[in-house]
Amino acid sequence: MAIGASRKESSTFGLARVNLVTSRCLNSQLPRMIASSGSFWQHARARARWRRSQLYIRTSRTSRACISIAAAVPTIRQTGQMKRRKSARPLDRFPYSEIGVSYFAEQAYCEKRVELWLQNPTTSGLVSVPAALEGLAEAQDQEDLVTSGKDFHEAVESATTPLSSSEIARAVQSRSFALAESRLTGEYRGVRLRGRPDHVFFDGRDASCVLEYKVTDSNQLPTSHRVQLLLYGYLLGQQNFNVDNFILVCVLVPRRHDTWLAKLAPSRIRKFLTTIRAEAESLIAAQPSRKNWHQMGVEISRGIHVNLRVFRYDQQRAESELEFFTAYWLGGRDAIRTTMESKCALCQYNQLNLCPVPQVEYGG
User: Fold this and answer.
1) Which of 32, 209, 262, 354 fits as disulfide partner to 155, beta carbons 3.0 to 4.6 Å?
2) What's 99-351's CATH class?
3) How far is CA 337 from CA 23, 74, 113, in A?
4) Residues 195-223, buried b or exposed e (16+ Cβ, 10 A)?
């Protein structure tokens, strides 16, 4: 039978069947391979070796082209890389090397909004503002709120004497101390984490209390704030601090007072911090069996009032939150949208029709 046509050969024992697909590439080399082999099985093995060493692709209805596997492998690898990039985990698309605690808080607010932000991250890292509105008048309220919060935090930080690593090491061994806006790092399931709590008080190696300030007119403690405080406790534990009796305090500062602290002298700010901590500890001492405490209208200066939300650190709860939220970053589940219509009504991604699953229309 002519080599130029396709054919099938089988052994009389029915043990093997060799399908031989030929092309012009075979005419010059395959006959020599078969000629060098003596038996049918040697012929079959020669044909199999040939087929494994060549890859045929159809380039037209009337012709076949032959390319070597060595040349094809890079193309196959590139195709695989393209598929992996297309289906990359959210963690692979995150623009920073560590996920800040505030991004987990954003997930608690609306994970779908985080996913939309990941598609086109803003230069500021602010999730609540789409990149298309960044710096424009439509986003001014959101950006002003963030700016006022930063001003408040900077005023608190300025009243605290910074400690070097060696000073912290000495303080841990001998006395109580406090850290303001200090960077904490850790990891969970291979996801690198970072956080910067506003104020943390220590008694030696015991982390006793964290204060986190939120500029808001609400007196409630949203899940996003609770998650953020819990994760600060987790990071402190990863830094080998004892968090068994760690108290988490969220200080809710009305927006009308957002510039008040910046005008105070450092000594007055330190008094403010002492007042807040003492108030939180007195709440716990009065009803120690409770898990959550609150105090509205705490006067910290004449005419200046803040609201306090206080709860104990729970290691199991912190790890449960991390397990849930990191599942999204690692590609284990899809982003979950908020179920609150009030959030959708104010969401600027909804305003730009970027959200595929809004609960209500923007402004509705």
Assistant:
1) 262
2) alpha beta
3) 57, 40, 8
4) bbbbbbbbeeeebbbbbbbbbbeeeebbe
- Asked whether the whole model's pTM tops 0.90, one would answer no
Task: Look up residue 190 and give its two tokens.
Answer: 């291979």
pLDDT in tens, 277-313: 999 999 999 999 998 999 999 988 888 889 999 999 9
How far is residue 262's CA from residue 81's CA, in Å, rounded to a whole number? 51
Q: Is 23 helix (H, G, I), strand (E, B) or coil?
A: coil
- The beta-strand segments (E) located in the chain are 7-10, 17-20, 54-58, 64-68, 99-100, 176-180, 184-188, 191-195, 199-203, 206-215, 247-253, 292-301, 304-312
Phi-psi region of 189 (alpha: psi -120 to 50; beta: other; left: phi over 0): left
Closest CA to 94 of 106, 83, 77: 106
Tokens of 27: 């005419």
Structure tokens at 166: 């060696």
Q: Which residues contact 189 (CB under 8 A, 6 or more apart)?
A: 322, 323, 326, 330
Tell me phi and psi for residue 9, to 5 degrees: -125, 140
For residue range 10-47, list pLDDT tens digits in order: 333 333 333 333 344 444 454 444 444 445 445 555 55
Report yes or no: 333 and 249 within 8 Å, Cβ to Cβ: no
Structure tokens at 37: 């082999």
- Paired with 210 in beta bridges are 200, 248
Phi, psi of 290 (to 5 degrees): -75, 160
Least confident of 162-171, 209-218, 240-249: 162-171
